[in-house]
Amino acid sequence: MRLPNDTQRHSIYGQTGSGKTVAGLWALERRSFDKKPWFILDFKGDPTIKRIPRLEEIKVSSSPPKHAGLYVVRPFPHETGDITQFLWKIWDRGKTGLFVDEAYMLGKTNKAYNSLLTQGRSKHVPIIALSQRPSWLSPFQMSESDFHQVFHIAKPDDFKNLQEWIPPLLPTRRDYHSQYYDVSKGTLDYLLPVPDEEEILDRFDLKMRRPIRHFSGLFSVPDKERKRA
């Protein structure tokens, strides 16, 4: 089974309580936020996202930081203009990761988000996007995803919609198992539940620890050695 690289799009679907958010964070923990900036759009104030160690919150109206790290934006639904401008800034810069919890909140016709979906590969903008209802998403979310991961889907119409893009998809289970479809290979894998929330948060903690910097010069010498000099 292949995991997405730093130019690809990974879409995750499932009803509330199916395990998609924890699976999304498991996928995010394996990405390159230690090498470039990754931004989480958290529309619902997810409690697990809030627990990620050293997660830096920024305003949707601000310019996205350029430094590597993991950042969260918690926009209000009415801030559509600010959200769009924020996404355009990511599109213009490139080399930036994007994690969207409840991607339907961006709407089907958001030009900035659709541009990231269709041009993100060339701009090196990987995307992890989560949604309860695939029928609420932009059609580009479906057509441009390199990987689809499906947890339990309650609505028959949503399941039929997914089968148009994932032909071998079978009825989904309720016990945190998922089906993982690699578009380019046309292969469907069946995944056991991802590690639990605490283990994933520990992995974030380890990966986000800042390295100790060793400075040269006077102030790098221990006090006792300075006194002997």
Overview of the structural elements:
There is one protein chain. This protein has 229 residues and is of the alpha/beta class. It has a single domain (9-228), classed as Rossmann fold (3-Layer(aba) Sandwich), CATH 3.40.50. The protein has helices spanning 20-29, 47-50, 80-93, 111-123, 139-143, 156-165, 197-207, 223-228, and strands spanning 9-13, 37-42, 56-58, 69-73, 97-101, 127-131, 147-150, 178-182, 187-191. A nine-stranded mixed sheet has the order 3-4-2-5-6-1-7-8-9, with helices on both faces. The longest helix is centred in the middle third of the chain and has 14 residues, at 80-93. Mean pLDDT is 90; it is low at 211-229.
A few lines on this structure:
This protein has 8 helices and 9 strands.
Count every beta strand, where a strand is a DSSP E run of 2 or more residues: 9
Domain count: the total is 1
Secondary structure class reads: alpha/beta
Q: How many helical stretches?
A: 8
Low-confidence stretches: 211-229
Question: What is the secondary structure topology, with strand pairs?
Answer:
Elements: E1 9-13, H1 20-29, E2 37-42, H2 47-50, E3 56-58, E4 69-73, H3 80-93, E5 97-101, H4 111-123, E6 127-131, H5 139-143, E7 147-150, H6 156-165, E8 178-182, E9 187-191, H7 197-207, H8 223-228
Parallel strand pairs: 1-6, 1-7, 2-4, 2-5, 3-4, 5-6
Antiparallel strand pairs: 7-8, 8-9
Helix pairs in contact: 1-7, 3-4
Looking at this protein, list some descriptive labels.
single chain, 9-stranded mixed sheet, alpha/beta, disordered C terminus, 19% strand
